[in-house]
Amino acid sequence: MNTKIKRCLIDIVLFILLIVLDRITKIWATSRLMNKDAIPLIPGVLELYYLPNGNTGAAFGLLMGHRSLFLFIAAVVVAAIVYIIWNMPDHKKYKFMEILMVFIAAGGVGNMIDRLMQGYVVDFIYISLINFPIFNVADMYVSVCTVILAIFMLFKLKEEDYNYLESSLKAPFSKNKDKNHET
């Protein structure tokens, strides 16, 4: 089997598992936390609390009520990630980056499913210690993995890695692709 197809099949399985985990947690939160008191996991620090009326905005409640905009942005970002993953070089050094992108795409789709199904995102994890906005598992995929991806790209990749990655992403549009890159 072609290594690219095999790699992408593994990514698809991970993507589906991550979405299923997100859906399970949101279904659980809706059935166990809605219209109930918060459940402290670490008193004064972390609790499970169902956000009444859901979150119709983005991070920190920004742009509330712009469902179509969020659906469009999520679809564009997921499409871009799929394109990048499909055209990413088959080198070990890019695998970690690929996995992070799968997590980010799964988080985007997890919240997109909520917006499509009920018009809002189910949020239920609350860090009470710092009064942090209530969030969910998909939000963690996106936020944590985006930060890790940025750190990885800033401190782990070298200029030649970026150049090769760029040429790989442009390859579908050009006839000259360097298939013998060794780093």
Question: Could you explain the architecture of this structure?
Answer:
With 183 residues, the chain is mainly alpha-helical. The chain contains five helices and three strands, in the order αββααβαα. A hairpin with a 3-residue loop joins strand 1 and strand 2. The chain is elongated, with a radius of gyration of 19 Å. It starts with a helix and ends in a 13-residue tail after the last helix. 27% of the residues are buried. The model is unreliable at 177-183 (pLDDT under 50).
Subunit organisation of the chains: single chain
Distance between the first and last residues' Cα = 24 Å
Shape: elongated
Give the integer mean of the pLDDT values: 87
**Total number of domains:** 1
pLDDT < 50 stretches: 177-183
Question: What's the main sheet like?
Answer: 3 strands, antiparallel
CA radius of gyration is 19 Å
How many strands in all? Answer: 3
In terms of DSSP E residues, the strand content is 5-15%
> Which series of helices and strands comes N to C?
HEEHHEHH
Helix and strand composition category: mainly alpha
What's the number of helices?
Answer: 5
Helix content class: 55-70%
Output the strand order for the largest sheet. 1-2-3
